[in-house]
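A quick word before the example. In earlier lectures we treated sequence and structure as two separate objects. From today on, think of them as two lines of the same record. Here is Transposase written that way.
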Amino acid sequence: MGTYTGGSIPFSEHLARLAQKSEAPVTVVDAFKHTKTKKYDGKTWIDPENAQLEADFVQLKQMAEESCLQITDQEIWFELVGGFDQKNRVKGVGDLSEEMKPLKPIYQSRRKSTSDISEIERLRAENEVMKARLDKIELTVAKQIRMMCGGNLPTPRDPDDGMRGSGNGCVA
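And the structure line, produced from the sequence above:
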């Protein structure tokens, strides 16, 4: 999990101090990044594994927001690191694990959210394939229309003209 650079200050205190300094809400990951980077710069990670955890969190949070899932940052983090370890701790959040204890019973039902996110990813990939196929079909149809009209493009039809697409639609 990497080295904690917060000194003797508890993780929850770092979270509170960051919240005081910041005008925007501070997330668990903001405090994690603060305590796991050199000189609290938020950029130079002490352990590359921590950088990957932060990137994974950002990706999961974005997917949850796009999917309109009602899930908190703490729940995303809890799920990302695998919940509680054998000693009833949550990786990367120090004493904040105590605040996450109520998530323990929820954790089992949240597994569905992770599988939902995986399903959404699969459906997005499938959607992209279908879009590519549709684009190819549209190009083929446009090519065939040009051939049928002797290289001339069809005239655009005004849906309000009352003629409902009469005529061959080819520009002479």
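Notice the following. The CA atoms of residues 81 and 91 lie 6 Å apart. We will return to this example when we discuss secondary structure assignment.
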